[in-house]
Amino acid sequence: MVNDVIFDFCGVLVDWQPRRALDGLFPKQDIDAFFADDDRCGFMYYDDLHDRGTDYPELLPAYEEEYGTRLAQMMRAYAAHIDRTLVGLMPGMPELLADLKQRGVRVWGLTNWGRDTWPVMAGRFPQLIEALDGVVVSGRDGDGAAKPDETFFSLALERFGVDRATTLFVDDSPYNIDGARAAGLPAIRFVDAAGVRARTLGA
């Protein structure tokens, strides 16, 4: 029996496309390199620092010192245009949240996101924030922790006041799924709203 569902934001509730922050501002090959899977430009590493509570005014000079002026221009542009990365809500998710709440299932948000840019996310999707029973944001609430850290999941469970045994966590990242399960939290990997609906509502 599922009494509570905790949802990741980016890639589950929200369609997040990081390249959109830089599209049209830099050559395609530079953008490809900036977001490359091997993290040759350090975007993923520094984005994780941002998610863990280092705000951009502190993070950007450190990035420039390590990677130089040209890449720092791209990182600054990403920070300045992060609103462009938030394309919209994922298909079927607003309806799923409404149906879960109608069944008496509480719905929560758990996101790796920066403290200083959280107002951008919340301002872009006010109806989503209102629909959720609560949100834990890593940069704001995590005290240096973020997914997939077990401590971050434990913090969220305590903050929400939910029982692990009757709670389901939904995320699109296998690393975050592993972290949740290591914390004793049942978890499924997100593919689409229909899959979560089948797991939670049986329809």
TrEMBL record:
Xref: SUPFAM superfamilies: HAD-like
Hydrolase keyword on record: yes
One Pfam family named in its UniProt record: Hydrolase
Keywords per UniProt: Hydrolase
Organism domain of life: Bacteria
GO MF annotation terms: hydrolase activity
InterPro entries linked to this entry: HAD-like_sf, HAD-SF_hydro_IA, HAD_sf
Presence of keyword tRNA processing: no
Protein's recorded name: Alpha beta hydrolase
Taxonomic path: Bacteria, Bacillati, Actinomycetota, Actinomycetes, Bifidobacteriales
